[in-house]
Write a structure and sequence with these properties.
binds 2,6-diaminopimelic acid; ATP binding; UDP-N-acetylmuramoyl-L-alanyl-D-glutamate--2,6-diaminopimelate ligase; about 500 residues; binds ligand UAG; six-stranded mixed beta sheet; binds magnesium ion; single chain; Protein-Tyrosine Phosphatase, Chain A; 23 strands; binds adenosine-5'-triphosphate; alpha/beta; cell division; 3 domains; magnesium ion binding; peptidoglycan synthesis; eleven-stranded mixed beta sheet; UDP-N-acetylmuramoyl-L-alanine:D-glutamate ligase; Udp-n-acetylmuramoylalanyl-d-glutamate--2,6- Diaminopimelate Ligase, Chain: A, domain 1; about 20% strand
Length: about 500
């Protein structure tokens, strides 16, 4: 693609417009001959410091902040075109959207502290049930009816994201639901995505290592509604959620369509809710009539997630009746309150991805009614992530469970003992078992008939990040092994 097409909204230096660009990247290590390299200021490094390496690797153009142009000019060969701009992250994303131009016809996005993966997955399943070739994209990677692709970040970098949207569209995927993380929104990873509708789930404690204040965290999330959703788009929200008023006022100020769900919602108004076996029966008032829906999932929060997903599907043009019928066959996202095993003694083990205080409270509250005996939980906290949430997670676990085991999650570059210590501050009565597999074994050993054990924090993950190595680890596998070991010990009378 020619530089002038790629940089349609920027001033391209004289004579450089016809320069052919063969690819884009913000990582000098990924540059190939003919590439444009975007020099971005990051959390750890300044990309401008890698411009010389990028040029040596074959970059023919460099996108950078306007005030970096003069400094870089002297360091680079004359032939390398320097493209200064106000906001290089935004410009890179818009370029990526032009370079990888195809997108599914309908793209919806969801943001919030918890529930993004679940809402994106439910929305995909509803789209699919209406006969549309569909995908979801987020923490689980790309999920389609054919299976799951590799996942890294919740919201991929803009070049990777637009490449994936282009691939999906070429693969005839017409409907896509994607997760918008606060990091992704703040870093303009989603700019250039053509959205039909956007939803807000909730805002609780997370990522206070990255966002200086809750207001800053909320502001990042609100970008989805303020900057990314175009005029004519629909905002889906439960007005009863904390901070929903901020989302609604943006929708009103910008004249966006508003679709509200939940007890005080108008389009999908929840008028009744009762448990039924391992599910819940919802009664709903809608402009298309009243419905009774049996949701095959437990937990009040899954009701919110299901209604938000239904709202996104309706905002995308699907009919209310079939959308609500589709909820009756919805499957929970992998690793979210997922049944993982049953011990011979009659205890149940559930794997859940709660790794923030609110999520943990909600997951344990959802399980409590099903525990005729004790409710136990295994928790840890990730390294290189918001340290302030650790003690609060410990506290939530101690308050809501009958026994707590504190173990390692993904320590990353941190000392795992110090992470556990912070969690234990909130749960002084907990047992500490560093090794996650051993913690799960011990949790399983504790189970008697009617007890439930919730293994929290890692959900669908298949690795444990220790330092910069990813060691194979799956909570589901560890649970299966612990149950099998216990059974063979019982058989041999050990
Ligand atoms: C803190 C954070 O979000 N960092 C993201 C950010 O990196 P950065 O720009 O700050 O990186 P940096 O290391 O400071 O480097 C600055 C620039 O120099 C470049 N560089 C660096 C070294 C080199 O040799 N050459 C080179 O060109 C880098 O490519 C980068 O462009 O932009 C990168 C590209 O988009 C992301 O990969 C990276 O995610 C890191 C790996 C990460 O761990 N992010 C997590 C916290 C994250 O984003 N999580 C969210 C939230 C999850 C949720 O709760 O839902 C997610 O969406 O997954
Ligand atoms: N609407 C909700 N409100 C509160 N907690 C929720 C909600 N939905 C899910 N949870 C809890 O949060 C955990 C993570 O859910 P999910 O993966 O859907 O959220 P997410 O926003 O995608 O999280 P992440 O940002 O880590 O990707 C679940 O396992 C559950 O414990
Ligand atoms: N998307 C989340 C994943 C956290 C998963 C948890 N197991 C941990 O490592 O903290 C994050 O990047 O904060
Ligand atoms: Mg997610």
């Amino acid at each position: 693609m020619q530089l002038q097409q790629l940089a349609a909204d920027l001033t391209v230096p004289d004579g450089a417009g016809s320069l052919a660009i063969s690819g884009l990247t913000a990582d000098s290590r990924q540059v190939l001959p003919g590439f444009l390299f975007a020099a971005l200021k990051g959390v750890h490094a300044d990309g401008a410091g890698f411009a010389v390496q990028a040029a040596a690797a074959g970059a023919v153009a460099i996108l950078c902040a306007q005030d970096a142009v003069a400094g870089l000019r002297g360091q680079l060969p004359e032939t390398v075109v320097l493209l200064g701009c106000e906001d290089p992250r935004r410009s890179l994303a818009l370029m990526a959207a032009r370079f990888h131009a195809a997108q599914p016809q309908v793209v919806v996005a969801v943001t919030g502290t918890s529930g993004k993966t679940s809402v994106a997955e439910f929305t995909r399943q509803i789209f699919q049930s209406a006969g549309h070739k569909s995908a979801s994209l987020g923490t689980l990677g790309t999920v389609t009816a054919d299976g799951q692709g590799y996942g890294g970040l919740t919201t991929p970098d803009p070049v990777g994201l637009h490449k994936e949207l282009d691939r999906l569209a070429r693969d005839h995927v017409t409907h896509l639901a994607l997760e918008a993380s606060s990091h992704g929104l703040d870093q303009h990873r989603l700019d250039g995505v053509r959205l039909t509708a956007a939803a807000f789930t909730n805002l609780g404690r997370d990522h206070m290592d990255y966002h200086p204040t809750v207001e800053d965290y909320l502001t990042a999330k609100l970008r989805l509604f303020r900057d990314l959703l175009p005029k004519g788009g629909t905002v889906v929200v439960d007005p009863g959620e904390k901070y929903a008023d901020r989302v609604i006022s943006i929708a009103q100020d910008r004249g966006l369509q508003l679709l509200t769900v939940g007890e005080t919602g108008k389009t999908l108004k929840l008028t009744g809710l009762r448990p039924s076996g391992f599910g819940q029966v919802l009664t709903l008032e809608t402009p298309r009539g009243n419905y009774t829906v049996t949701l095959p999932l437990i937990g009040r929060f899954q009701v919110s997630n299901a209604l938000t997903a239904a709202g996104l599907a309706i905002a995308s043009g699907l009919d209310t009746g079939p959308v609500l019928r589709a909820l009756e066959n919805i499957k929970g996202a992998p690793g979210r309150l997922e049944f993982s095993g049953k011990t011979k003694s009659g205890g149940l083990v559930v794997v859940d991805y709660a790794h923030k205080p609110d999520a943990l409270e909600n997951a344990l509250a959802a399980l409590r009614p099903f525990a005729s005996g004790r409710l136990g939980v295994i928790i840890g906290a990730g390294g290189d992530r918001d340290p302030g949430k650790r003690q609060l997670m410990g506290k939530a676990a101690q308050e809501r469970a009958d026994f707590v085991i504190v173990t390692d999650d993904n320590p990353r570059s941190e000392d795992p003992a110090l992470i556990r210590k912070a969690v234990l501050k909130g749960a002084p009565a907990a047992r500490e078992i560093a090794d996650r597999a051993e913690a799960i074994r011990e949790g399983v050993r504790q189970l008697k008939a009617g007890d439930i054990l919730c293994v929290a924090g890692k959900g669908h993950e298949t690795g444990q990040i220790v330092g910069n190595r990813v060691l194979p680890f799956s909570d589901h596998d560890a649970v299966a092994e612990a149950i099998a070991e216990q059974e063979s010990a019982m058989e041999t009378g050990a």
